[in-house]
């Protein structure tokens, strides 16, 4: 499972685990040289805690910061090759509706011997967001694009109230890059992940949460 620690990946994982004949071998995360997960800037210890709570191994790919795309592709393909040699047959993604991102994922896996699978792709994100909440997915907003959403949502719990506040102009799952989340509990978690927001910071045009836990 391609894993950044967010709600979409967590729900895609839960969905795949309920599919007969599907066995999830582990989680796969790209980590910057700063010790943070790429895209969300979450410290790696939180995805390690998520993996432990899920009872799953975690494969990490170390990336420089900043990371040229050719370096990213070289290192991730080497990681995919190791997983394929260990018996993996596919990579699961939590993407929801962006066709260009899906095409990039599929192209990146071309020739690796691994298929790309998207358990949630094409599901309307309004009902999907509420299905996540109904299944017990709990998450914090840990990164936001202030050009798309109020910076004040960073540190908030992602819930029905926040979705209502953001309104129709914002995707309720943040699929257009409006925000990123950190899952603290959900289907398959043996225990919640302790995470407390102590402040915010500006990073590369984004507002990010300072986390303790």
Top keywords for this entry?
single chain; globular; about 210 residues; two-stranded parallel sheet; alpha/beta; 8 strands
Q: Care to describe what's here?
A:
The chain has six helices and eight strands, in the order H-E-H-E-H-E-H-E-H-E-H-E-E-E. It has 213 residues and is an alpha/beta fold. The protein has one domain (7-212). Strand 1 (27-32), helix 2 and strand 2 form a beta-alpha-beta unit. The mean pLDDT is 95.
Question: What is the structure about, briefly put?
Answer:
This protein has 213 residues and is of the alpha/beta class. The chain is built from six helices and eight strands; from the N terminus they run H-E-H-E-H-E-H-E-H-E-H-E-E-E. It has one domain (7-212).
Set down the secondary structure blueprint:
Blueprint: H1 7-17, E1 27-32, H2 44-54, E2 58-63, H3 69-85, E3 90-92, H4 99-109, E4 115-117, H5 125-134, E5 138-144, H6 160-166, E6 179-185, E7 196-203, E8 206-212
Parallel strand pairs: 1-2, 3-4
Antiparallel strand pairs: 5-6, 5-8, 7-8
């Amino acid at each position: 499972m391609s894993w950044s620690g967010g709600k979409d990946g967590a729900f895609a994982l839960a969905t795949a685990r309920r599919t007969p004949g599907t066995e999830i071998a582990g989680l796969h995360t790209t980590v910057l040289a700063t010790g943070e997960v790429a895209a969300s800037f979450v410290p790696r210890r939180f995805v390690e805690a998520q993996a432990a709570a899920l009872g799953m191994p975690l494969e990490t790919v170390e990336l420089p910061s900043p990371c040229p795309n050719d370096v990213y592709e070289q290192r991730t393909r080497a990681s995919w090759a190791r997983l394929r040699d260990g018996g993996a047959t596919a990579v699961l993604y939590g993407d929801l509706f962006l066709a260009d991102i899906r095409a990039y994922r599929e192209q990146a896996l071309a020739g690796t011997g691994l298929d790309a699978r998207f358990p949630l792709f094409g599901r309307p994100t309004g009902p999907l967001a509420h299905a996540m909440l109904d299944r017990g997915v709990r998450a914090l907003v840990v990164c936001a694009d202030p050009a798309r959403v109020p910076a004040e949502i960073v540190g908030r719990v992602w819930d029905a109230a926040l979705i209502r506040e953001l309104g129709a102009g914002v995707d309720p799952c943040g699929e257009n890059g409006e925000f990123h989340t950190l899952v603290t509990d959900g289907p398959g978690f043996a225990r919640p992940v302790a995470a407390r927001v102590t402040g915010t910071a500006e990073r590369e045009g984004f507002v990010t949460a300072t986390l303790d836990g």
